[in-house]
Amino acid sequence: MILKHGSFAENISAKWRSAVLVCLAITLTGCGQLGPLLSNDKVTDADNDEVVFIGDSIFALSGKIQDELEEKAGQTFRRYTVSGAELSGTGAIAPSIPEQFREAYGDNPNIKTMVGDAGGNDILLPAIAFDPNKCKTRWYQFGGLSQSCKDMIDDLYVEGVDFLNEVSDSGVENGVLLGYYYTKNGLFRLASLKEAVDYGNQVLARACRNSTLDCTFVDPRNVIVNSDIIFDGIHPADSGSEKLAELIWPELEPLL
After folding, report:
1. How far apart are CA 110 and CA 23, in angstroms?
2. Is the terminal CB of the chain with fewer CB neighbours within 10 Å at N or C?
């Protein structure tokens, strides 16, 4: 039998390819039981316990951003970042960003400054899988980010403000929230997320401003270039981590 385009067998093959990509995404972003395994070591007692890092694999995969900042500061900080973490996640695939903070608070509530990121995986993971929110746009669709993607990111605004308010209500004085840079075409073809990243950063910056926490938003879009991102198209190479630390340091140093 000759298989024609659109045949059942071809559709099954396409689904298998999609499943493989999803599995790779889960591995590289650290979902499921791999989250802690693909993260730098948790640090619950440091030189300066009043500074806590929370976030996803941008921080957690290599830990180099924290390493660079600790070298600049001459002291270590507490670390709770986990690869695969989402802002609005239930914790089924990895501890959510709010859960990371609650664990840090439970270990030692004397927290003055929280540093981290949030919301990236909420956009990225669905986009890598089947893009149900239609967050990918092509070069000819400038200004064409779908309303469904905007609606999903707008929901993250509410989650973000609620979380930052919780942090403030817990007695934390300051927050440094790192935004997201543009992903690239690598193992996953993610250059088409540019407009989603733009909209996401806009919403995260607004959440930072409108929360009760004294929160500073750090925007890395004009600093990180393709060579600063590893082969997967997502995570920072050493050069990228060093640049991100350089952006964070002027905001963190006065708080120490």
Report:
1. 39
2. N
* Residue ranges with strand state E in the chain: 48-54, 77-79, 113-116, 174-178, 214-218
**pLDDT at 95 (0 to 100):** 84
- pLDDT over 50 at 168, yes or no: yes
Mean pLDDT check: name the lowest of 11-20, 117-126, 166-175, 202-211.
Answer: 11-20
Indicate if the alpha-carbon torsion angle 60, 63, 66, 70 is positive or negative. Answer: positive
> Do 133 and 146 meet the contact criterion of CB atoms below 8 Å apart?
yes
User: pLDDT per residue over 1-46, tens digit each?
Assistant: 333 344 333 333 334 344 444 444 444 454 444 445 456 789 999 9
**Tokens 């239930």 correspond to what residue?**
90
Q: Which residues pair with 178 in a beta bridge?
A: 218
Three-state DSSP class for 78? Answer: strand
CB 251 within 8 A of CB 176: yes
- Three-state SS for 24? helix
Tell me the H-state helices in 30-119: 34-37, 57-60, 64-73, 97-107
Compute the residue count for the chain.
Answer: 256
